[in-house]
Each structure stands twice: as structure tokens, then as C-alpha cells.
Amino acid sequence: MKVFGFAGWSGSGKTTLIEKLIPQFTRRGLRVSIIKHAHHGFDIDKPGKDSWRHREAGATRVLMLSDDRWVLMHELRGQPEPTLEEQLALLAPSDLVLIEGYKAAPVPKIEIHRPAVGKAPLWPDNPHVVAVASDEAIACPLPLLPLNHVEAIADFILDYVSAKETP
């Protein structure tokens, strides 16, 4: 399983880029999974639904399934957030896992940098950034990828993970 990440400030376009990359990879026959790290709480459940009521009653895990999909919700209930390695183990069998967030994780990543966002680039202080995708030409010693050229970004990622070992 190959792992590749995306980092950037809020509003830079990480989610949009990943959304465009997934079809590029699946057309090439890859099974793609995603880890999206949120810095704040979130809930995919709805108050009043059976699964929500079970969680509210104290269940640690609630697994819901149908003939279309299944989802496992796990309440941490004060336990530490699982490590990235623990989360990756849950995603087998996948050919490629794309990670959004986890800026400091030792995973190769592309920084999505838009000067219009008004934030300093991450790459000077992050040794795990191996390329930058931007909507403008910027001075950068790393490979600079045009943000709107999704096929070129997909090619870069596949070439990179083929040449390097990732966790």
C-alpha cells in the first residue's frame, strides 16, 4: 500500500485537488482510500437516528451497513486519537492512500499553496513536502506543479511512490 499526503492552509484547495485526483487514479486501476484529519470535532450521524441513540447510550463502536455500504463509527470516549499507522492498517486492501492533513507526519506530501490565501508556504519548514502545487509561479526549490493540471500531479505522485518507500 502506497501512502501520499497533501498539506496546505485552509482554503488552499486540498479537498478539491484530491477530489479531482481520485478519478485519475481509479481510471488507472488503483483502489484509493482517503484519510482526512480534522482539527475539530465532527459527526456524520444525525441526532435521533438509531445509530446516534446507540452512541449516546454509551456504545464505543456502532457499525451500520446496507447492501450499498458500511460504516464503523468509533467513539474515543477520552482515549487518545489513534496514530496514523493505526489508521492506515484499517484501510487495507488499498493500493494508494491519500492523506489530507497531518502536516507533520513523516509521509511524502504535496503542499497546495495559493499566494492569494495570504499564508506563508509550509515547505521551508516541513521536510516531508516533496513538491508544491500552486496556481501561480512561485520561487521554490522543490518541483512546482500547476494546480490545475491534475493529470500531471497524478503522474508525479505515482512516479514518486513507485520510486520511494512510504510507511
UniProtKB/TrEMBL annotation:
Gene3D superfamilies reported in the protein's UniProt record: P-loop containing nucleotide triphosphate hydrolases
Taxonomic lineage of the native organism: Bacteria, Pseudomonadati, Pseudomonadota, Betaproteobacteria, Rhodocyclales
Residues covered by the Molybdopterin-guanine dinucleotide biosynthesis protein B (MobB) domain: 3-135
Pfam families linked: MobB
PANTHER family, per the entry: MOLYBDOPTERIN-GUANINE DINUCLEOTIDE BIOSYNTHESIS ADAPTER PROTEIN (PTHR40072:SF1), MOLYBDOPTERIN-GUANINE DINUCLEOTIDE BIOSYNTHESIS ADAPTER PROTEIN-RELATED (PTHR40072)
CDD domains for this protein: MobB
Molecular function (Gene Ontology), one example: GTP binding
GO biological process: Mo-molybdopterin cofactor biosynthetic process
UniProt source species: Azoarcus indigens
SUPFAM superfamilies noted in UniProt: P-loop containing nucleoside triphosphate hydrolases
Entry protein name: Molybdopterin guanine dinucleotide biosynthesis accessory protein MobB
InterPro entries in the record: MGD_biosynthesis_adapter (IPR052539), MobB_dom (IPR004435), P-loop_NTPase (IPR027417)
